[in-house]
Amino acid sequence: MAWCVNDPNGNWSGSPALPEPLEEEVEKFRRKLKYFFMNPCDKYKARQRKPWKLILQILKIAVVTIQLVSFGLSNQMVVQFKEENLMTFRHLFLKNFSESSANTYAVYTQHDVYTHIAYTVEQFLKLPSLTVANHEYEKQGEVSAPLSLCQQFYRNASISPANESFHIDSQVDEGDDVCHGQLLTRPPLDLTFCWFLSECLLVYPPHPSSRPAEHTLNFTLHFQRLLAVAVRFTLKAINLETVQYHELPDCYVFNITISFDNKPHSGRIVIELDNDVQIYECRDGTVTGASPRNMYIMVLFDVVVILILLLSFFLCMRSLKAGVLLQSEYTAFFSSRYSKRVSFSDRMEFISGWYILIIISDVLTITGSLLKIIIQLKAVASYDLCSILLGTGTMLVWIGVLRYMGYLKKYNILIITLRAAFPNVIRFSCCAAMIYLGYCFCGWIVLGPYHSKFRTLNVVSESLFSLINGDDMFSTFKKMQQKSYVVWLFSRVYLYTFVSLFIYMVLSLFITLITDTYDTIKHQRLDGEPVSDLQAFIMQCKDPPESGRFSVNETRCLMSCSHRACGSDDNTD
Fold first, then answer.
1. In terms of DSSP H, where are the helices of 94-231?
2. Given pLDDT bands bounded at 50, 70 and 90, which one contains residue 89?
3. 277 beta partners
4. pTM for this structure?
5. Coil, strand, or helix at residue 320?
6. Domain boundary among 255, 274, 290
7. Helix, strand, coil share (%) of the chain residues, nearest 5
8. Are residues 68 and 126 in the same domain?
C-alpha cells in the first residue's frame, strides 16, 4: 500500500487511486468528520437542527447563577447572625474585651486568671438580665443546662527551674462527670455549684422565679502543671431577621467554649472564645403573614435546576461517547487506508475537554443543589460544604462559556494559545516550584525565630508569594529583627536574591512561554499551515455547511468500506 503524506497546503500525495464508489465513501467520511468539528451555527446550516445543547448551556448558566445568588444572600444572613453573636459573646463573657485586642487577649498573673473565670461565671448567671437579644439557657428536661468549668493538667509534676530539674508524668488528667461520688443527672436542690471528684465544676443557672444569689467560687488551679482551663456552656437563640422577608425564622444552638491555654508555660495564658453553631427548624412558631411557601418555591426551583443539569450531563456524556466512537472509526480508517498510526494529539481532538469540564460542573452543582434542598428543609446545616460545591460548579460553568467564545475568530486564537501553552507552563511551573520550595524551607528555618512572616511554612509560602507580586516588600525587610547580625545579613542576601530571581527571571520566562506560543499559532494561521494530519484530511472537504450534503444518510460508518478499499488495493497491486 502506498504511503500518504500531507503537504503544507493540505493536499495528500502518495495515496493510490480509489474506485469511484470507494472515493465517494471517503468523501462521506470527510464530511462526517467536518460536521463533527463544526460549531453550532454551522451545524444548524448543515442539517437545520437547532443547537439545543447551546441553548441548554445558556439556560443553565442563568438558572445556576440565580440559584447561587439566592443561596449566597440566604447564607449571608446566617453568617452575619453567627458573627454578630460571636462578637456579642466575647463582650459578654470576656472581661474588658475590645475588638482591637482580639488576637492578643491574654492574662499574665494568677489573680487575673481567677478574676476572668469568676467574671465569666457571673455573667453566665446574670445572662437573662444582661443580654439585649433573645438568648436563653438550653433546657435539660425541666432544668437549665449548666456551665462546666474544667482544668486539664499533668498527673504529677515537680518542676524546679532554679535547680534545673523536673519530674513530669506526661499522663494528662481531666474532669469527669461524677459529683460527690454519683453520676450527675440533675442539679443539687440547694447548691448552685457542684464539685466534680476531679478538677471540674458545674454551675447551674438560678431558677427564673428566684433572684440570682451572690456566690464565691472556691477552687484551686494547679498552675505548675496546668495545661488548660475550659469553660463550656450552651445557649439558644432565634434569628428573627428572616421575619422581614415573610419567612419562618430558624433556631440556633450555640455551644460556647472559653479556653485558657497554658500549654507553653511561658507566663502568658491566651484566652479564646470559640462558638460551635447548630441550626434547627423551630418546633413551634407562627409569624403573621409568613408561610413556608417561599421555601417550597425555592425547593421547586432547585429541583428544576437539577433536572436541567441532569439533561446537560446526559447530552455531554452522549457527545463524549460519539467522539470516542468516531475516534475509533478514524483510527481504523487511517490504519487500513494509509497504513499510518494516528498520533495521540489527533486522537485527543475527538475527546472534548470542554465536555469533561461541563460534566464535572454538573456533578458538583447537582450535589450542591441536593445539599441546598436538605439545608432548606432544616435537616442539616452544612453551609460551608454547600458553598464549596455550588461555588466551584458555577465557576466551571462560567469557564465553560469560553468554549462558545472560541467559535469567534478573534477569540479562538487566544483560547488555542492557552491550550497549547498549558503543557509547557505546567513543566515550567514544576521547575520553578523546586526553587520556591527551597526558599520556603530555608526562610522558615533561618528567619523564623527573628521574623513574624517566617514563623510557619504556611506563612512563609504566603509571604514569598506576596513578594513575587510586589506586595508588602518594605515591611518584610523592615520587620527583620537585628538581634543576630549574621542572620540579619543573611536575610538581606536571601530576600534580594529571591526577589531578583523570581521577578526578573522566573516571571519573565513564564510570560515568554505564552507569548512564543501565541506567535507560533498566529503565524500558522496566517500561513495557512495545517496543524495536524486530521485537520489536513478534513480540509480536503470543500463542501460548505449549507450545501445540503451533510444529511444523516450521508454519515454511514466507513469500517466495511475501509476493508473493501484494502482488498481493492491488494488486488490492484
1. 110-125, 127-130
2. very high
3. 254
4. 0.71
5. helix
6. 290
7. 55, 15, 30
8. no
